Amino acid sequence: xxxxxxxxxxxxxxxxxxxxxxxxxxxxxxxxxxxxxxxxxxxxxxxxxxxxxxxxxxxxxxxxxxxxxxxxxxxxxxxxxxxxxxxxxxxxxxxxxxxxxxxxxxxxxxxxxxxxxxxxxxxxxxxxxxxxxxxxxxxxxxxxxxxxxxxxxxxxxxxxxxxxxxxxxxxxxxxxxxxxxxxxxxxxxxxxxxxxxxxxxxxxxxxxxxxxxxxxxxxxxxxxxxxxxxxxxxxxxxxxxxxxxxxxxxxxxxxxxxxxxxxxxxxxxxxxxxxxxxxxxxxxxxxxxxxxxxxxxxxxxxxxxxxxxxxxxxxxxxxxxxxxxxxxxxxxxxxxxxxxxxxxxxxxxxxxxxxxxxxxxxxxxxxxxxxxxxxxxxxxxxxxxxxxxxxxxxxxxxxxxxxxxxxxxxxxxxxxxxxxxxxxxxxxxxxxxxxxxxxxxxxxxxxxxxxxxxxxxxxxxxxxxxxxxxxxxxxxxxxxxxxxxxxxxxxxxxxxxxxxxxxxxxxxxxxxxxxxxxxxxxxxxxxxxxxxxxxxxxxxxxxxxxxxxxxxxxxxxxxxxxxxxxxxxxxxxxxxxxxxxxxxxxxxxxxxxxxxxxxxxxxxxxxxxxxxxxxxxxxxxxxxxxxxxxxxxxxxxxxxxxxxxxxxxxxxxxxxxxxxxxxxxxxxxxxxxxxxxxxxxxxxxxxxxxxxxxxxxxxxxxxxxxxxxxxxxxxxxxxxxxxxxxxxxxxxxxxxxxxxxxxxxxxxxxxxxxxxxxxxxxxxxxxxxxxxxxxxxxxxxxxxxxxxxxxxxxxxxxxxxxxxxxxxxxxxxxxxxxxxxxxxxxxxxxxxxxxxxxxxxxxxxxxxxxxxxxxxxxxxxxxxxxxxxxxxxxxxxxxxxxxxxxxxxxxxxxxxxxxxxxxxxxxxxxxxxxxxxxxxxxxxxxx
Amino acid sequence: xxxxxxxxxxxxxxxxxxxxxxxxxxxxxxxxxxxxxxxxxxxxxxxxxxxxxxxxxxxxxxxxxxxxxxxxxxxxxxxxxxxxxxxxxxxxxxxxxxxxxxxxxxxxxxxxxxxxxxxxxxxxxxxxxxxxxxxxxxxxxxxxxxxxxxxxxxxxxxxxxxxxxxxxxxxxxxxxxxxxxxxxxxxxxxxxxxxxxxxxxxxxxxxxxxxxxxxxxxxxxxxxxxxxxxxxxxxxxxxxxxxxxxxxxxxxxxxxxxxxxxxxxxxxxxxxxxxxxxxxxxxxxxxxxxxxxxxxxxxxxxxxxxxxx
Lengths: 927, 309
Known about the structure:
By secondary structure, chain A is mostly beta strands. In chain A, 7% of the residues lie in helices and 42% in strands.
């Protein structure tokens, strides 16, 4: 036996070269030596040693070097449920034919007789196509046939009362008007005669309006109430898309790795027309193209040092397709609440390009991991988007109303008379080519202070260039410049003119710190406490609009001197003449328009967040996470609906009906030479705060079951969010209320379960042909339950002389807004709120602090059946069901509060529900 | 040696030990925390029928360890893993042989098991991270290699894979990224984990023929949908081989998890060589028990005859 041991030790020495890992064990060294020999033989055979190509055999055959999949996903309306909102109005399912198909293949790059990528050069290629035809239905309100001829004798308001029309040609000042009293039917400022029988004589109908109406369809539905919802449209929308993703990865030794990728996608977003002619007010058909090329080089200098260099170039393009050929687009006519004619931005062509070059370097040094990085970003937006190249006419009820009296007159009646309260035209001479660069450097350290305690810190410094236009075709109103017409602040300035630089904002440098702490308390590795803090800025976006080019691409507008008394334009006469030609770089050239206003300081939105979490792994593979989070932001960029630097202070409401006079109205604005400002989602006035706590429990796979459940309790407040806008632009604190989309309770469960059926499983452990039926079944699902949105109440009428854009309701003292048993019949008590008096503001919050809409739930499920065709090939059938329980979620209640004289009969009621099961079948062949 | 003498020798050998069965099935199992088991204490049944245990290799017997590194992410995690591995390797007893493998791109030999200990240590210290993970591309090869070794030598063979892989960083496309961003009606990505689940199912099906246990220490637990499916699948995969998986949620857990994995292999992993039934069928249930206590059960899909003595 001793001799055998000696032989074994000798064998090990000879096999391992000069010196083996350790001396041979005394008992069975020959077995270990056999293992080493077998290792050496097999690693050569399997191509695992340097310079060889790996070989794998499956079922006796060489395993394919290329792998991938073919797939088809099918949707058809016969699989879906009728959406509840459609079923409730007696509708049927819309047609749906959808096919999504494609393939993926990946493996070593093989060029026959030229190149074998082996393990060093690898590619993956994915193609996906989609063809879809989907019927869209829409229920809208259009004028009745009698109304189109001027007969409004049967027209009623939302309370079912007759809606009287008044003849604007009979307007006369009321000599008995008492300015000291509120305007009412007993104290009219202007008298006006009603149309006899509430019928507009045919001779008074505007000729152009009558001609245009030949393209307007007639009512085809009586969903109601009160002749509303009388136009049901069902039309198909055809969508298509084709795209590829390609990636090539090449390793040059163990230290260099090169990656290259190309993404390509062409798509067409169809649009179901609301009218089948040029006057279609629905969205246009759009074509989209996106391209992306990227490359990276990763250089591993040492085990403790790695460098990554990357270049990423992307472009996305969007183009609207005209309704008919290349001819002129149809003008737009707006007479809300009825469906208008024509649309905005019929002609749109835009491209957004981005070039990113970055380099990062990571070093491990003692207990630190240091990372430095630098990044350069160049953004380009090329855009051509005239809003109304053939003009837009907006009609209001004022000109057919009894001036100062609510619930009289109608916008469509004003249209029939051809009396527009506002008109606008777009003169776009050339596309805009916006450019901007950003430069960022950052440094980070992750420091293991001691075992179980890691501190990480990151600081990023970014320098943002302001937006520039390639040909300096940019302009804005400068609030610091004096207007030559009225010598008041506010005059147009243009880039590169009169000493103005190429941009209107300065370069902005920001520093973004963040820090985190990870702590395993008391050395307990199953418990992790994480603390995090971060402060960040968001660069001001370059939007795909020609906002800020007003001197070059003008928008002449015509505004009624008093929308109750005089039209801005008469339809039959067309757009009034303008003496402006473009470019118009005069300081006063934006006067009397909605002027583009660029915020001059380049203030960026600022965000801060703080988080604390406690993770604990429990027996049974449960992971429990408790989290607390606070996030806040200020200087958030708001749009023109939430910010209006030219708003009239609410104190001006004291002037009452004088405010209806355009000249007077203008005179009380801070910048009277402008109607208002268009700040296009770039005015930094927003503020929000969010506090949340969450609980998450995960259960890792056990018997084929994986489960994760999370619950979040949150509260989010802000001073800007919708749905109806801001009442007082000068008192943001008064706008502070619950964020309109804040759902305080959110519960989500996701699960995945491999059904225990088939051989060696406890259900149907059959081993014959039936195994192919019972094995390979699995389920995945997500269930979400959320509480309702805060309700935003709004009055039916806004008679504030255009001082208040979004009027709130009044709270009725002592009246409880809640009802004991909320139901669709009565979700809240509408009597707890009231329409404010004319020229007063409401005292309710922007959103109600305790009234919420109904909660919602959704259940999605995927059922999969896998059939193994061989050890390398399989087929998987899947059925994905969104809202598979076909659960109906109630709509929000009607929150419009009418005056006591004409209450909204639906206030507080929920009308209808929404949702419906959607099924997709899929088949995937994997090889 | 004359014919007579040879016959005498053979007769003596036959009397000394029962004959080796023609086909041996290797059944790895772990018995953590229990006193050392003897061959007599261990009972193995195959498809419910008792099978003769030909040999039991206990934790103190020879071990061949295939240490496979798949480091593609955080330098700190990789460093923590390297330090722990080096510490454990220095403590290994003499009857353990270690082969260091690199998992990126495909399974490659980094250090031959016959190389000196210093070479192994230096290789681990110099082990560089690569940006693309390779765990899924090498896990089958690792088991196949381990099975071949186990079929040749009466040693315990284990595969320990150390990975920090993120499923979205693979060269292959398991993340099912959006191809057509204009396709607003796409439902196929509602459950995006389908591709990674399918890949792991394929691997698992192929590995059901394998015999060697796999152990995995994942250095970075990630909780997004794709990585949850990936990591859950990995755990299921290694458990199906009789091995175990550990996932670290912080750097501090890296040494603990790696030590635990080494302990599993060094202190509680057994290998029972059992006589294979003549009529085995395509699937077989293995059940290991000791003293009436079930220790380990594993369904295996089929025999292929591969690597069987």
